[in-house]
Amino acid sequence: MKRIFTIVVALCVALPMFAAEPAAFTANQPMANPQSVVEEEDDTYEWEFWWEAGFDLASNYMWRGYDQSYTGNMFDPSFQPSLTLGYGKFYINLWGNASLLSDYKEFDMFLGFDHENLSVTIYDVFCGVGADFGAQSFFDKEAHNLTATIDYTFFDRLRLHWATTFLHAADRLPNGKRAFSSYFEVGYTQPFGEVMDMEIIAGAAPWTGPFWMAGPRVMVDGAYMLDFDNQPQGFNVTNLSVVLTREFDVNGVGIPVELGYTFNPTTKRHYALVKAGFAF
After folding, report:
1. Cβ neighbourhood burial of 67 (10 Å; 0-12, 13-18, 19+)
2. Rounded Cα–Cα distance for residues 68 and 175 (Å)
3. CA–CA distance, 150 with 160 (Å, rounded to integer)
4. Domain residues for 199?
5. Which tops the pLDDT comparison, 64 or 41?
6. 219 contacts 191 by C-beta, under 8 angstroms
7. Which of 10, 34, 159, 221 shows the greatest Cβ crowding within 10 Å of its Cβ?
8. With helix as H, strand as E and coil as C, how does 229-241 read?
9. What are the residues whose beta carbons fall under 8 Å from the beta carbon of 5, sequence distance 6 or more?
10. What is the average per-residue pLDDT within 249-262?
11. Position with higher pLDDT, 226 vs 223
């Protein structure tokens, strides 16, 4: 993981970036040749430096149909700050999470590329619960995972997502072979004018995913926890969601608001999600 972290730091220095759209380019050039001006605009736009910062407060940290406290509880308020630094279509995204009730913490580093309807990322996750998080060395490779994702959107409505984990100490099958835990998702967005967007999501594990999948809740030390000792095998649907979103603009500051419902057929858990924040 030292090698992975060194690469990330080097890229941070060389290519400042982060997950958001750059501000629109305004040209101050004569319009003698409209075609050449468009080409110059596009070229300048693609190679601008840009940045974005934001903060979300969520009623729970949901990921792939699982609450990340892995207790199965619907309510676990989470603070989620973020920072994006970008250069053209490339970006670095730094994202954090601090949950209150479960004391779950996470720090993610993304390297990403966006072009039209295509998005590709490689990201590293450093996470833990309570004292376990603070006691971990950031340079301990067993405390990290490396995952690659690809997204493509058709007709600005139909989104396809695929993610595969390539490096993680626990991502192994019982026979010791690397599992390459993966997840795929299909989302369809229906706008309702300027009122809101509604996205319908279905996500699943294409094969056994020991890195991130868990079974239904069991009693552990007097508390209910999702079961990692008896993980689901093979193909499993984990995420059926409906999400309503709208972003308000107040003096140039974006205020995204999200309401969602998730059912995880694998754990048979239902969740309601409320999220709000700001971005500038």
Report:
1. buried
2. 27
3. 8
4. 2-279
5. 64
6. no
7. 159
8. CCCCCCCEEEEEE
9. 124, 138, 139, 144
10. 94
11. 226
Would you say 130 and 103 are in contact if contact means Cβ atoms under 8 Å apart?
yes
Residue 69 to residue 78: CA distance in whole angstroms: 10
First-to-final CA distance of the chain: 32
The rounded distance, in Å, linking the Cα atoms of 279 and 250 is: 10
Instruction: Provide the token pair at 252.
Output: 């140039």
The residues, ordered by sequence, that sit 6+ positions from 70 with a Cβ below 8 Å of its Cβ are: 102, 214, 225, 226, 228
For residues 128 and 143, is the Cβ–Cβ distance under 8 A? yes
Question: pLDDT tens for residues 65-91?
Answer: 999 877 777 889 999 999 999 999 999
Output the domain CATH number for residue 260: 2.40.160.40
**Number of helices (H), then strands (E), in the chain:** 3, 16
| Tokens 């997950």 found at | 19
According to DSSP, the residues that pair with 58 across neighbouring strands are 78, 275
Structure-token pair, residue 119: 């998005």
Q: How many residues does the chain have?
A: 280
pTM of the model: 0.80
Strand, helix or coil at 87? strand
What are 65's two structure tokens?
Answer: 């149909």
Quote the CA–CA distance of 22 and 157 in Å, as a whole number: 21
Instruction: Looking at 47-84, list the stretches that DSSP marks H as alpha helix, in order from N- to C-terminal side.
Output: none
Range in 141-145, 147-151, 209-213, 252-256 the model is least confident about? 141-145
Q: How far apart are CA 275 and CA 61, in angstroms?
A: 10
pLDDT at position 214? 87
DSSP codes joined into one string, 37-49:
HHHHHHHHHHT-E
Residue 22's φ and ψ, nearest 5 degrees, are -65, 155
